[in-house]
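User: Hey, my collaborator sent me this sequence without any context and asked if I could get a structure. I don't really work with proteins. Can you help?
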Amino acid sequence: MAPLMTSDAAKRLEAYIDNATNKDSPTLPGAILHIVDAMNNTLFSHASGGTIPISSNSLSLIHSLTKIIGAIGLMQLVERRLASLDDTSIIAKVIPELSSGKVLLGFEVTADGKNKWNFEAQKTAITPRMLMNHTNGTGHSYFNPLMNEYMKEGWEARNEVVDPHRTALESPLMWQPGAHTNYGQGFEWLAVLIERITKKSLAVYFQENIFGPLSLIRTGYEEQYGGDITTQAGNGNAFWPRSFKVPDGTFSDIDPRVLETVERETAFPEGKYHTYSLGTGLVSTASELARLLTILLPENNGVDPVTKTRILTPSSVAEITSAQLPPALRNDSRVVLSAIPSMISPVDLESEHIDPEGSFGLGCGVQGKDRVLEGGAKGRSKGSVYWYGAANTEFWVDSENGVVVFVNGILWNDREWLSFVAGVEGMVYAGLEG
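Assistant: No problem. I've predicted the 3D structure and written it out in structure-token form, which is a compact way to encode the shape of the chain:
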């Protein structure tokens, strides 16, 4: 039986969202909640606040939710036998810059106050699977304190926001591949892998193989990453800029209403720089992203419910949505550390009420057991696929209940977001029927 949202629950959700965005004392500058079932029927959709009039069709940066699109793209290449998840030779063949990288062990401060860095050679081959489940050994200058220290010289020009590929090229590994998890940078190398295999930019590849076949006209790369999605005809007034909270409790936009295009050097199948990122970079809408993610529900198993287009095989869906980490890594190293606490809040996936027994999937998290919210309220089910972006964009795909939930607050990394989403989540599951 298809799920339904009770009218009482819908009213409570609307009131809760409106209260969080009220003009007198807002917690958020705006919020969008969009929920669909496996057939892409809208179970609930509500938008409130915003520095522009917002709806489920508003464009916004989805940040790290880009990663699951990268996983979908790579799995398509696996299906075409152009790549293999556990091939121990493909990285050396296609990305020799990564396979030859050394592992940073630490540093000593010399008499003149400089850091003397200690390295060792790679002992384990990196595989495409490792790039997507965060066990490839790479770090991230925002999410690894030692890596941040290493990259401090010239930081303004070599960090993942300003130049993700230069940063990846100039970064050492932080662990032997397969020995630890560290969230983030593997997807920049996945971007290089896909572009070099296909000899196409990611923007072209995704348009030809995902966005175009599904007629997703408001999903694509932002101008700061070489794209043009927010300035395309029909999209110019739909972009909702990110905000941050200022000391007086009000909100200020981070982005201009029209994003400036940044030209990026094309360099596939060879060369140092590549045009597009996979750690971040995509723009989408609540309605389009939720619809795309319905392909991960078991009722669809890789098929878009609207066009009936197959995007993935069932086996590829199973790979993306399966727990990828062995227990030792799952329980030891899933904390997303913060190297810059003033900009990025650490996220402990093991903490109570989040995901104490969960794992990384491919480009996502996989819920380890039924989520129990504070006060005992029910949350998302075991096996749900989820992730979140730095500007408070979040999704989860709940196979047991047959729903895709997308929540967007576009507020830069605010701690109050976790409480807001938990409140939404409790109301959603209290109101679902079927």
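In plain terms: The CA atoms of residues 52 and 383 lie 36 Å apart. You can pass these tokens on to your collaborator as they are.
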